[in-house]
Amino acid sequence: MLRILTCLVVLWPIAGSIDAASFDTDVPPKAGEKYKSAAFRIWIPDGVKPVRAVIVRQHGCGRNGIDHSDDLQWRALAKKHGAALLGSNLVYKENCSDWFDPKNGSERAFLDALKTFATESKHPELEAAPWAIWGHSGGSIWACHMANKFPDRVVAVWGRSASITEFEKATFEIPIVFNYGVKESEKGSQFEKVHINSTKAFETYRPQGAIWSIAVDPKSSHDCRESRALAIPFFDAMLKERLTKDGAQLTALAHAAKRWRADPMTLTLRGPDSSIGDPLKCHWLPSETFAKLWAEYCQTGTVKDTTEPPTPSDVRAAAGDTGVTVTWKAECDLESGVKAFAILRDGKRIATVGSPKGKGNQQGHFQARDYGDEPVPRNPAMLHIDAEGKAGAKYEVIQINFQDLESKPSVAATAAK
């Protein structure tokens, strides 16, 4: 493992998923900055030239979000758009605002980390690439601040469970979805007032033309629950529409004012040509496809997936004294993520590969997500040892997503000595 030590950072490449690389760096605070420590990890898909954007996953207060860059489902989104995926671990000294307010040092740390990653990864474009920012709780506040200060660099913002209330006019042109759980607003909840700033921001700036919406999860509290089911399609659409070929600049959304919308009281969807209701008091939705997903999420707390996941590839089987070791590669299902892999020997299903670690609904999943939407476990191996397997047996692998849809079986591999 290579370690590169400088006066400011410790950075080392880490083995990532298939045909990709990760890099870590630490950025200590400077005099006058309030945060305690800042660590960053970035994942860059192989063969991406140039990196067109950075998908930033900013954790909440008291969370460690460094593993956000290891999330297989978000990596699938990054790879699709030629983007890097960045996670962080920002630690405060006394108050969460020690880092979620960028002027306290986290902005400088973030920019310094990108500069370091640009050099060490040999992707100089990282230093100026646009950002698609997802934030939870304090991370959502950070995302809103960064959108205010860098409106020309922000593709879109997903703000889960918190917001600021003062926005610059240039930020109105950034697509933003404010997202929170309905249980956060219940009387007596620890987070009873968390959603208020999001609602206030929407009600203040949407009438001024801000292309924003609110998505309320009917099932969750302050946890992220299934919010990625809508967040990923949102970023997928915005990255596709706003990134130029080289990612060097952002394009404005064509006819942004004439998009789909939803009535804030009834959630009824309206097309761009509808004359019913005041568009500037409705939720702004970029397309019919996203509008329907938004409505489903607001009603159920998730989004149904009807497409089968990608078929695993490069299956290999090696017979030895302890049985047959089976390995494979797989592109994660973008819509629903990887729940597990099924292993077939000679056409018969013999095992389901999921993580033995985790608790609750994480148990047995290949890579689940927890309260702050961090992946669990971080980097699971695509490997299975069949103790009863012998040379000559044929092995196939099936990907299973979180809605229990299955891929087609992979090409079979014959176990050889």
Strands, helices and their partners?
Blueprint: E1 4-5, E2 10-15, E3 20-26, E4 35-45, E5 53-58, H1 72-80, E6 83-92, H2 97-100, H3 106-120, E7 131-136, H4 138-149, E8 154-160, E9 176-181, H5 196-205, E10 212-217, H6 228-242, E11 260-262, E12 269-270, E13 283-285, H7 288-300, E14 313-320, E15 323-329, E16 338-345, E17 348-353, E18 368-369, E19 375-376, E20 383-386, E21 394-401, E22 413-414
Parallel strand pairs: 5-6, 5-7, 7-8, 8-9, 9-10
Antiparallel strand pairs: 1-2, 2-3, 3-4, 4-6, 11-12, 11-13, 14-15, 15-20, 16-17, 16-21, 18-19, 21-22
Helix pairs in contact: 6-7
Folded structure, characterized:
The chain has helices at 72-80, 97-100, 106-120, 138-149, 196-205, 228-242, 288-300, and strands at residues 4-5, 10-15, 20-26, 35-45, 53-58, 83-92, 131-136, 154-160, 176-181, 212-217, 260-262, 269-270, 283-285, 313-320, 323-329, 338-345, 348-353, 368-369, 375-376, 383-386, 394-401, 413-414. It is of the alpha+beta class. The chain folds into 2 domains: 4-300, Alpha/Beta hydrolase fold, catalytic domain (Rossmann fold); 313-414, Immunoglobulins (Immunoglobulin-like, Sandwich). It has a 10-stranded mixed beta sheet with strand order 1-2-3-4-6-5-7-8-9-10, sandwiched between helices. A 4-stranded antiparallel beta sheet has the order 17-16-21-22, with no helix packed on it. Strands 12-11-13 form a 3-stranded antiparallel beta sheet, with helices on one face. A hairpin with a 2-residue loop joins strand 16 and strand 17.
